[in-house]
Amino acid sequence: MLNMKTNLQARLRKIVNASGRMTKLGVSTQSKYVQECMLYGSNNYFDIDELYVQAGSYIAKLLETEDAVVTSCASSGIVFTIAGLICGSNHRLVENLHIEKDNISKREVILPKGHSINYGAPVHTMIELGGGKVVEVGNANKVTKLDVESYISDKTLALFYVKSHHSVQKNMISIEEMYNLSQKYNIPLIIDAAAEEDLKTYYKQGADFVVYSGSKALCGPSSGFVLCRSKEQANNLRKQYYGVGRSMKIGKENIFGLVAAIEEYYKEKEPSINMEDLQALVDKFNKVEGLSATIAQDEAGREIYRCKLHVDEKVFGISGYNLNEKLKSGNPGIYCREHEVNLGNLSFDPRPLTSKEDLDLIYETVLKIGGKDEN
Asked: Which of 112, 121, 175, 318 has its CA at a distance of 20 to 30 angstroms from the CA of residue 253?
């Protein structure tokens, strides 16, 4: 008899995830409580439309918002939001959005050029999939309030802001300025906060829609949700389950897992690795010739701290790029954050790691690849 678990375990390498809550690595692992709630969801039947509504209502209660819409991921949350704004409650448009969209003038979505990112897929693809027409404004390294305002017209459907470490952090229009423009011109403001850890601030700052991933900071299953300013808006988004959202539907078990993860999110829990553990790794790296390490805060200002390792190729004997490639290709494969690998920098994110033994493995593997003896 075939044994799926045994067969897959034999075929797949073990991965040590020091990269973060990354989709390409399976994002996160779930707690026992979340798994139990998912099991309950999978073992029972529900009127799915009622489940959508009640799950959204409960999430809204937990996060102190008017309503929320559950989705299969943050990307689909973007699609639902754009399509919901274009279609409203118009059944014909819901079912024929991409046939009718060229006849709709009000579908331009203003996106600061520094926020036109690729997070695994281009954000503009999700906006356009929802029927929107992306209008990038400003420059890649500078976008002002005037840049955005000068493109607002009667064709503008929404303003779009990406709160992420992927976005350009300097010389970008602020959320407050975007909100002021949305109020001045009565245009909805959408914030993509997929991986953000603060689930309340952006809604309180005035955004009409805030899109989150359920599997990143929350450590839930593959899922997402959109916080909505009104129940009418949420109802219009939910209509997309019978339009473009049909190909992005979320399963009942993942809805229960998502709600459980949000419920559990604000409970105190001890991290597997603390700052002392991370500092110990930094100190060990700093004793190795050709390596220098520091504790670095997340680029976007989140309360996330990582070990940032710089590799001096001439002294250590291998470049940061080649070190990273060898770490990934090993067994187990060790994945770190590689955004600055061209500068010789690798960052190790402790959040997905299971224990201090993972930090020891990272240290020992780096030394082994560099042909160094442990000091």
From this structure: 121
